[in-house]
Structure formats: C-alpha cells, structure tokens
Amino acid sequence: MMAAPGTGLFIRKSLDSVRHDASTTGMRRTLGPLQLVFIGVGCIIGAGVYVMTGTAAANYAGPAVVLSFAMAGVACALIGLCYAELSSVLPVSGASYTYAYAALGEVIAWGMGWMLMLEFGLAGAALAVGFSGYLQSLLADFGIHVPAALATSLVRAETVPGGVTFITGPSINLLAAASLAVVTAVLIRGIKHSAAVNMFLVVVKVAVLLGFVAFGLSHVNTDNWLPFVPENEGGFRYGVPGIFRAASILFFAYLGFEAVATAASEARKPQQDIPIGILGALAVSTVVYAAVALVMTGLVSYRALDVADPIAVAISAIGIPIVALMVKVGALTGLGSVLLVNTYGQSRVCFAMANDGLLPRAFAGIHPRFSTPAFATIVIAAISAIAAALLPITLLADLVSLGTAIVFITVAVSVMWLRTSHPELPRPFRVPLGGIRIRGVWIGTIPTLAILACITMMGPVIADIIGKALAGEWIPSAILMIYIILGAVIYLTYGHRHSRMRATALAAAE
Fold first, then answer.
1. Which residue range is the domain that position 93 belongs to?
2. Residue 3: what pLDDT?
3. How deeply is 131 buried, as exposed, middle or buried, from its count of CB atoms within 10 A (0-12, 13-18, 19+)?
4. What does the angle CA 119 – CA 383 – CA 29 come to, to the nearest 5 degrees?
C-alpha cells in the first residue's frame, strides 16, 4: 500500500490506499441497486417537500416555488453526475471526503469531512424539527396537545417585512430530539435491518404523496397560482430574487445522493450500483417534488403555508378529515425514513475520518454483534438532537444548504483533478458532454456547470446571512464561524498529529 508523497497539510491519499480501505472496512456488502435507489429517495424526499416547500413558498417564491425546485434540481443533477463518476472509480464509504483526500490533500479533505458533518448533522436536526411539527398536528387530531414549551425550539423564526428574524423563548423541542433517539436505535441494529425499514417507509411516503397529488389536483383553485411570481416586497421576499432564495434553501433537500455515495462500502457491486442509485433517486425525487409543490400552492394561498405542516394545511382545505389524517401519517413516515438515511450517511463519514486517524479511533469502532459503527452513530445523533431541540428549521436549512454547496463544488473539482492526473483509470461511468484540456488540465463541461450552479445556490444564502449579521441578527453567522473555528482547532491539535497517511509517509521517509 503506497502513501502519497510528502507529510504536510496537503498530503494526498494514494488511490491504492483508498482501494485498500474500501476492501477492509469490516462492514457487510448487502445493498443492491434497488436498495440504493430507495436509500436515495428515502433521504431526498423529506423535509424539503413536507416542510420547506411551505416556508419557501410563503416567505420567498409564492407559487413560483415550482421553478425554485427546478433550479435546485438542475444544479443537483449536474453534481449527481460528478458523484456517479467518482463513486464508480472510488467506491468508498467516505464519499466526497475521501474523493477530496485523494484529489486535493488532507487539509481540504478535513474541511470537506467537517462540512459534511455540519451538512448531515443540521439536516438531521431540520428533519427532526419537521417530524415534531407533523407529530404535534397528528396528536392534536386525537385531542392530545403537547405543551409548546416541550415542542418548540429555543430559537424561533418570525416573518417580518423584508425577510425573517430570529427570537429566543423559554422552550425546547424534546419531540424532535426523541425522534433522533429512535432512529439511532434502528441504525445500530445493522444496515440490512435498517435498509428493510427504510424501504417500507419509502414505499408508504411516496404512495401518500402520489395520493395527495392525485386527490388534490381535482380540488385545485387556479386563482391561487395568480400571480405566479408575486411582486417583490423588498430583499428576497418574492419576485425573481425570491425564486433564487427559495432555490437556495430547497437545495439541501437533494442531499440524498450523498448518502447513496457513502453506502459504497456496503454495496454489492459499487462501481455499477452506486451510479444507478444516485441518478435513479434524483430523477424520482425531482418529479415528486415538482408535482407536490404545484398542487400544494393550488389548494391554498401560498401565504398560508408558513407552518410546520404545510401539506396537512393544504389538504385540510378540501374539508375531508380522513384524507388529512392519512397525509400526516405519510409525512411522519417520510420524515422518519429521511432521518434514518441521513443519520446513516453522517455516521459513515465519521467512520471514514476516524479510520484515517483524523478523529479519535473510537468513532471507527465496529459493534461486535451488529457490524455497525455504533459509537459514531450515537454521538453524531446526540449532537443533531441538541441542534433540533434548540434551533428553528429555517436557520438549519440555510446552514445545511451552504455546507452542501461547498461540498458539491469540491466533488466537481475532484472529478477534473482525477481526469487530469489519472486519465488511465477505468471509469464504468463517465460524466457526459466531455471537456477540453488547457495546458494539460482537463476542464469538464458538466463539472464546470455544476460549480457555477452551486455558486448560484450559495449566493442568496451568503447574502442573507451577511445582511442579517449587519442588521444585528448574529445567530446564523455565529454558529457558522464557531463551527469553522472548532474544526480548525480539532484538526490542528488532533487530526494532523494522528493522521494515518502522515504517519505512513513519515515512516517511509526514515
């Protein structure tokens, strides 16, 4: 096994080392292409359609949220093609983290792994908050009312002229935290058991969403779609800026194909099955998203959708309680499946980083009975539970989208680096439309478009976070800065010193 030359911050993981790690994880290869598609759909179709569609329509895009979904979907399709090529060449558990390690060096890999942890962790928290909202609504239908102090986050989002502001109150969302505890228990039991549970939940939630579309179409009031693009009211509130802003917060809803890529170490034929899982899940989910958004905004005014359970509000307008009840049950199963897969993906990234020595070895420990990274799963789920209990879904979605875009850009760059430095590698899947070479560097059409699309998605989020900070709304920027500083401290004080690749390179140099 050969290590990359050098021992500095930019030491790269050799391809031989990557392949060796992929073959010695200790995890079982039990997933086929259909299960991988279900894992992707399970992670993609969740808070984006059940919760954030309402927030995006009510606060930013109006009925044009359908266009926002299309924009986010196109961006993710481009990056999904990049993931498909990389995963066919390097079928490893760490996904974009490991791609960056092999292509761009250890310090960049650490940054990607750390952003992935933020991405998955806050996405899990956002999903848990959405789950809590639908569960409260369902319990209320049976006369059970959960006290607001136990089902509302410490920080809350409030709509004000020109955007959204954050306030704090004496409450904590214990329902959201509890949902993550249940998911953790399922995941520790093992991937085969988890995949079976996930497949059942995915079938239920897709059936309910298709039922919502089919039933709701006949009750749509087309007046609710007018004006399709509401007039801008300042900042990102409606108009064309609102469409872009809505796309930026819906971007995180497509995170699922990253979870498919992280399953490479447990796929039976990863070079063949991972690309199928990624692209298949993305295609199915995009169609479902667009259809649900169109029907939802046709049933009620978009201004009425800024709630925790927008699909339930939309279907309730029809006046048939049993249908609304079924939709809420479907939403809970849907959000539950995404929580399951999202936490699965985060634990596998954590496992890969610990296996490289960048995190304590305990995070790479495999449970002797269930063959799963139990310790990593428990710790990262606990952190997500704390975020879910304290933060509102709007803030979580923004931070997740920002982290997602940064990770996706790195994946696109990694595709071009690998084509440049290792053109001879067999690639069962290649991004289409080719590319050109400039002074020996391969510049791919699809990777370049993917980078531009990600920058477009990042722009509104960054502008909004900076704008809020300048106006005294420091919470989003403070969370981001603290997280970045904490990551740098952990890497410099532990990761760099315990890096397995660095130790190997030092030993070889002696």
1. 46-406+453-509
2. 39
3. buried
4. 65
Q: In whole angstroms, give the CA distance from residue 137 to residue 135.
A: 5
Q: How many CB atoms lie within 10 A of CB 405?
A: 27
> What pLDDT is stored for residue 18 in this prediction?
63
Q: What are 278's two structure tokens?
A: 């990624």
Query: For residue 222, with 0-12 CB atoms within 10 Å meaning exposed, 13-18 middle and 19 or more buried, which class applies?
Result: exposed
Cα 207 to chain center, whole Å? Answer: 22
Phi-psi region of 296 (alpha: psi -120 to 50; beta: other; left: phi over 0): alpha
CA distance 212 to 296: 9
223-282 pLDDT, tens digit each? 999 899 999 888 788 999 999 988 888 877 776 666 677 676 667 776 677 778 888 888
Can you tell me which residue has the tokens 């049976």? Answer: 142
Instruction: Quote the DSSP letter at residue 370.
Output: T
Query: Does residue 226 contact residue 153 with C-beta atoms inside 8 Å?
Result: no
The verdict on residue 51 lying in a domain is: yes
Mean pLDDT, the chain, as a whole number?
80
Q: Closest by alpha carbon to 187, among 341, 45, 390?
A: 341
- Distance (Å, rounded) from C-alpha 116 to C-alpha 346? 7
> Does a structural domain hold residue 136?
yes
CA atoms within 13 A of residue 439's CA, in its CB half-sphere: 0
Per-residue pLDDT tens digits for 463-493: 878 887 877 778 778 888 888 899 899 988 8
In a domain, 475, yes or no: yes
The H or E element containing residue 88 is helix 65-89
Percent share of the chain, pLDDT over 70: 84
Contact call for residues 396 and 132 (beta carbons, < 8 A): no
Instruction: Specify the CATH number for the domain of residue 324.
Output: 1.20.1740.10
- pLDDT of residue 126 exceeding 60, the answer is yes
pLDDT in tens, 145-159: 888 787 777 777 666
On whether residue 414 sits in a domain, the answer given is no
CA geometry: angle 448, 422, 21, nearest 5 deg: 105
Residues 347 and 362: their CA atoms lie apart, in Å, by 12
Q: How many domains does the chain have?
A: 1
Give the model's confidence band at 102: pLDDT under 50 very low, under 70 low, under 90 confident, else very high: confident
Q: Say whether 467 sits in a helix, a strand or coil.
A: helix
